[in-house]
Known about the structure:
The protein is mostly helical. It contains 18 helices and no strands.
Amino acid sequence: MVTNIVVMIIYFAITIGIGLYFGKKKTETSSDYTVGGRTFGPVLMFFTMMATIVGASSVMGATSYWAIRGMSQIWFFVGGVMANFIYLFYLGPKINKFGREQGGETIGDWFQFRYGKASKYIASVFIALAYIAILAFQYLAMGTILNMITGINFTACLIISAVIVVIYTSFGGFWSVASTDVLQGAMTWLGVVALGIIFLVRGGGAQNLFDSLTPAQTSPFGIVTPWNAFASMLTLGLGIVSWPDIWQRVYAAKSPKVFQKSFGAYIFANLFLTAAVMFLGFASIKLMAGYDGGANGLLPAMIMKYLPNVFGAILLAALMAVIMGSADSVLLISAVIVSKDLIEPLMKRDKDDAFLMKMRKIVTGIVGLATLIVLMFSTDMFALWVMSADITGATLAVPILIGFVWKKPSESATIASIVAGFAGWLLWTIVPNFLGLAISAILPGAVLSLVAYVVVAFVAPAKAKI
């Protein structure tokens, strides 16, 4: 335990030091704070994508779900791949071009440019709520590991986790986050892949692990219906489309080609991560039989049980890097949305650049600490993640995906789409068998969002040419 604590302290010290150093050195304007001055090259882009997209739910939460659902979990991965290719060939280049030509820094900026101010506010509220929930489960993951390693009170571990992330994120903004992402992204990929290989071997190889699955777990449709499999695809396929931390990184790339080059590399590298997490889940069935410590702590418990040495401590630090790489990104973009898209437009005073940067630092600190309140309502990382992706996918994906190419929809169409999508998601979330249809909430939400968008686009089309 002492080794684990020492290694973790060293890792925290290095991370905070890197974040504070580069945050101070590189951050001079509000644009630097928000999108890194749009100067990121392919290497920095690759690592910041890796650290940001692969987080607590993708590793700790997903390990438990692979163990429970078996091959049925594959549909979330398929949806993620679908969304990644949408970004690579369609959304990414368009977002980067919009940012350079119009100064866009958030999704809200695009909504205002494409549709109007009202849609910007509505979209920003939905994104902020969803992302505060995502930030909450990053804290939950960090707190879980600290609690298991140190034995300190779990609530205290949550507070420590929040304070660590808030310190370097609020200080230097995007440059603090991106500079630490180089370390965290490298540790994420190497650490998770190493864990996958180690426990694949300890479990007796791939064939032994697959043989340990139940008949239902060996089939992609063994635990889910085709409709629910499709809904799992939509959760990521549509949810990722409106994830603002990915938009932020697309804005930060030097050019569309730089984004495509780095994101293509990320997609390839993510194949190895997914395979590693799958084997971790299957290995846990065999190696952690009788474990009753809760889904969130399964992976760190497995590391501590089978790797009680310096190497195990380093891998626990790598697991912490997985989480922190997402936590700081989610905190920053949540705070930027709250400050830039929701608070600053309502302020009447003149807002010079120094004031804007100070404002965003303060809001980052407030959002980072206030997010702890969310954990009073849910402690399941994967459930929080799915809920967040469902909400943004059901409400914002349609106006984004179609709005870049179809000029007819007006702001009225967008607002109707968001409201209808949320109503559909909410109804089937509260009453899972609403109207006799036992389907995942994102399905009716996305369908109603699309129908409202198209119908209102023809009834009340945009008056001016976009």
